[in-house]
Request: fold
Amino acid sequence: MEVRRDVFQAIADPTRRAILTMLTLQALTPGAIAANFNSSRQTISKHIQILAECELLRHHYSGREIYYQLNPVKMKEIADFIEPFKALWDTRLNQLDEILKQLKNK
Amino acid sequence: MEVRRDVFQAIADPTRRAILTMLTLQALTPGAIAANFNSSRQTISKHIQILAECELLRHHYSGREIYYQLNPVKMKEIADFIEPFKALWDTRLNQLDEILKQLKNK
DNA sequence: TATATTTGCAGTCAAATAGCTGCATATATG
DNA sequence: CATATATGCAGCTATTTGACTGCAAATATA
Reply:
């Protein structure tokens, strides 16, 4: 479980996507995050580690607690990959708009 | 290799991302796609199947050749996931802008 | 100080992944 | 019709994944 570790691999897992979404609202401790899942605390902790390793999460200590928070900028790597495709589907939608307009004019 | 099969899992593999990018320009046959990689034709073909299964690719026949083309709209699922995070990193960038403006004014 | 809580790390295991080869099928081409 | 080309499918294998449990360390709390 030690080789590929990038943003794309990180968001491939639905549990990890849920964790990311959960952290859009506020920073949380591993315990608090794990409380929302059926999996064991250690399993969730491992997911958190993976997210942290590829810098999707940052953390800061507060006594024995560790608060994990989003690093949303890192998500930009995914947005950058999507961007060129976005242009393509926009084009298709625009073409559809054109067709609809022409139909209306008839 | 038969269970999870969604867009996020599909783009987790770098080879599959390369295939998708390759197909932004034009529809291609499996043979033509495979020619761009070091992996075997069958291996690339399997990646194509995976992309097709989750509807990221469509295909049409031309004699014995099969042309695969992008279905960019399907990529929107990823964009939709990214969207809320985009707001967050935009906020941070905007805040940075504010700070820079204030520094300039001093 | 003794005990409880929060967390990370190491180890195990079944299932999934991604690569390979071999073979069958369908369509061009000579 | 015989051969070459394009493709998909089945089966094998090493590696990776994601789940689990157990344990150690650090910090609160009684």
User: Anything to note?
Assistant: Chain B has one domain: 7-105. The mean pLDDT of chain B is 90. The longest strand of chain B covers residues 57-62. The radius of gyration of chain B is 20 Å.
